[in-house]
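Let's sit down with a protein and look at its sequence and fold side by side. Go ahead whenever you are ready, and we will take it from there.
>
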Amino acid sequence: MAVADAFDEHCDYLFKVVLIGESGVGKSNLISRFPKDEFRLDFKPSRGVEFAYRNIKVRDKLIKAQIWDTAGQERFRAITSSYYRGALGAMLVYDITKRATFVNVGKWLHELREFGGEDMVVVLVRNKSDLDQSRQVEREKGKGFAETEGLCFMETSALQNLNVDEAFWK
């Protein structure tokens, strides 16, 4: 597996993935961890949509993962809906230490299903698992919601780099 930052490098396949969820759940750190293996402790909310790329060499083919980090703030919700189009996958992220971020997962999923493709693979991501001692959302709640809605389920910690790559590969 090879990682590159080049935007215009030739690729054989392009896969668009969007990260969605409330502000502060760790989407930006997941998106930084996956392509660049970086983590930032200083929180700066995303504005609109931000992008990252990771090129992966599989056999003799170059696959470009195009990752879109959508802002979680309500004032940016209107501009994010158009960005779902063309996405092959979505990561619906919530923070285990903030119950409200899980409560709103249903709203995000509704929006995703309204504007995204029918064949899109959706992973419900239980983020910040390194803070389990401060959790407000039990693992079983997230897993049960994912099963009911037909979503994949993954626990991650961008801080500890736990299951970040695996969540993107789902």
Residues 1-7 have pLDDT under 50 and may be disordered. Strands lie at 13-20, 49-58, 61-70, 89-95, 121-127, 152-155. The chain has one domain: 13-169.
